[in-house]
Amino acid sequence: MNFAPELQVAILSLCQSLIWPAFVGIVLFVARTYVVAMLQSLSRRIEQGDPIQAGPIAIGKSENKLTRLNEINDFKEIGNLKSKRNPNLASEMTLDLSDVVYLIHTVTSLSRDLAGKERWGIRVIVDADSEELLDKIVKVVYHLHPTFRDPNREIKNRKNKFELKTRAWGEFNILADVYFKGYKKPMTINRYLNYPSS
């Protein structure tokens, strides 16, 4: 069966385009257990802060951080970290409690502002796996999208879990700097603010 030269070129081009993705797919399928094991191992190394290097890409060793719920009891001692040898130790350390301190948001129904533009009501709070941990927070500085009139908002009210209320029209990633007693540097956490589908 003879095809026109243009059709032959198109078929050959299509076959060449599909060969490499098909080859990679077959190799990944055949070696899937090894690939999964390798990705899990890489994930564990990243979680533990071990250094990783693959060619020109290198991730250095991270400092030990307080990141697990079962380490919260150790957090009680953080206020006592200032020692005779280094009285500034606690204030210079940076916390990472991202597994146990987090942002939660709720969205109210859609309404229109005075100019007739649609806006969602947003409520964001800081929560933790321990009330004791929340008691150690001094203040939270929220960083909204730069299009907000006042994008950086400081909240010090512990009673309502450092609640931020505002109105917005679009989805965005909100950052929050959480300041703990005895620490100069905050812990930064974030949350993507999405709205219910209409």
Topology:
Elements: H1 5-30, H2 32-48, E1 52-54, E2 57-59, H3 72-75, H4 89-92, E3 101-107, E4 111-112, E5 118-128, H5 131-135, E6 137-143, E7 152-155, E8 164-168, E9 172-180, E10 187-193
Antiparallel strand pairs: 1-2, 3-5, 4-5, 5-8, 6-7, 6-9, 9-10
Structure notes:
The protein contains 5 helices and 10 strands, in the order ααββααβββαβββββ. With 198 residues, the protein is α+β, with helices and mostly antiparallel strands. It folds into 2 domains: 55 residues, no CATH class; 125 residues, Sandwich (Immunoglobulin-like), CATH 2.60.40. Strands 3, 4, 5 and 8 form a 4-stranded antiparallel sheet that branches. It has a 4-stranded antiparallel sheet with strand order 7-6-9-10. The protein starts with a helix and ends in a 5-residue tail after the last strand. About 15% of the residues have low confidence.
Residues in helix, %: 25-40%
Q: How do the SSEs run, as a string of H and E?
A: HHEEHHEEEHEEEEE
Taking the sheet with the most strands, its summary is: 4 strands, antiparallel
Number of strands: 10
CA-based shape: flat
The end-to-end span amounts to: 55 Å
Contiguous low-pLDDT stretches (5 residues minimum) are: 62-91
Q: How big a fraction of the residues is strand?
A: 25-35%
- Average residue pLDDT: 75
Number of helices: 5
**Number of self-contained structural domains:** 2
CATH fold assignment of the largest domain: Immunoglobulin-like
What is the CATH top level name of the largest domain? Mainly Beta
The CATH architecture of the largest domain = Sandwich
Structural class: alpha+beta
Q: What Rg, in angstroms, do the CA atoms define?
A: 26 Å
